[in-house]
Amino acid sequence: MKKVLPLSISVLMIAAGLVGCSTSNGTAGKKESAQPTAKQNANVDDGSEKMDITMLVSTAIGGGWPENHPMIQKLNEKLNINLKFQWVPGDNYEEKLNVMAASNTFPDVFQIWNATSYNKWQEKGVFLDLKPLLPQYSNLSKELPERDLQMMNPKDHIYGLPMYAPSFRSNLSIRKDWLDKLNLKMPTTVDEFYNVAKAFADQDPDGNGKKDTVGFSMNVGVNGGFGNIDYLKGAFGLANNWKTVDGKLVPMQSQTKEWKDLATFLHKAYAEGVLDKDFAVNKEFDPLNKLEANTNGIGEVNPNEVYTRTLPNLQKLDPKADIVQLTPPKGPTGLQFATTVISTTKIVVNAKTDLKKQQRIMRLLDYMLSDEGYTLIKNGIEGVDYKKEGDKVTMLPAFNTNRPQILSTWFFRRFDPGIQIRIWDDKSYGDKVLTWFKNTEPYRYDNPGAGLVSETQTKVGSELDKKFTNAIVKVIVGQEPVESIDKAVEQWKSGGGDQITKEINDIYAKMK
Fold first, then answer.
1. What CATH number does the domain located at 11-166+343-416 have?
2. Rounded distance, CA 296 to CA 252, Å?
3. CATH of domain 171-339+446-451
4. What is the pTM of this model?
5. pLDDT band at 37 (very low <50, low <70, confident <90, very high)
6. Contacts of 477 (CB under 8 A, 6+ apart)
């Protein structure tokens, strides 16, 4: 996620002293009088006036569209607007927002990727409260779930619309051909999972006569934490960052027993060669890369890419390779969880826009989630990016060169797990992809503290988490006994963790 700095409440304060401005406890200190609010039922924009709308979009590989792009022309014609895009590479997005904040030159509509910035800036009156306007826009009301609309927003206010990310972008998979070759059954518990993973590591499932395979892999995040093993963390009872106990949030770092149980399991796997020995230096996508390289038997995959990238890459090395979905294994007490992404990205409207422009922006966003608009931003323009012949839809070469889908990929879209499924894709393919998501839904691993950020967490949270994770790594590789986790938990709490917990719970109480 990109990060930005907070903005002050008035133009004078913005110009004079934005950098270094801070607020405490996220949304806890919000003043009602500071919040610009849209006016309900004030339909002053009849759409007849052509209107400039500036939009800031964070880009990935390939960058944004040129000014004369067919998609921009199409949207301009549909909404009677003149869209002026500012395309900013993701690595520079934070810097660009900081510059805009310092000069008070935000665009009309833009993204906030970072929860800290969103919480701080909404207090400063930077974002328009959209709640009064939403009832006028049926597609926004229909397609954006209430839970996600309200997340990170104070009660009775909505300062940003949620940018959807598939909750189960990472789904657990297993090498079906390896299971068959070794005459193994699909594992259903963590003990069975371990036995299968050990067989994958020890019994030469790739048949090359070398001991060069592992049962499963994981990685250590740059800011602490373990990636690619949420299914194991959840099975052993660890929270997805936070859990609720008696109406209060409890951090996963305080769960001493659960960490000991997980670390004991991982230490055994590491010592016996079942766990990838390079886990501590792996980057985020290394476990997936090793799955595609025919060395990792169990790993998380993206359902939207498993049949277009992961399996084809793997079958280049082993034409008989097969990957199938694996249900998250049950832990010692029967818990089962899957990796669940909680998106904190928000689409916001500049509070300085006038009422006419507010309504036109909302009409644009609403159109993007309509049946017609969503088909457009997801698939492109009929006759340009694809063609229809009766019931048959065929992609045209221009789709790959025009990249008409990037607005739905990078900026705003429906809550649609099949975001990468196009209207010309074979129905059986789409059904296979969506089945992965459907099968994982019962094992949702929610984080009730998602989007809540405290001042102490912003200052020291990352360093605390890195130290805590390093202590767990030492237990996994055998450098420290499992009892050392007691000390690690206490050091996290005394080093700022207790204060973070207090501040987060103060915010949580005010958001109810």
1. 3.40.190.10
2. 28
3. 3.40.190.10
4. 0.82
5. low
6. 267, 270, 280
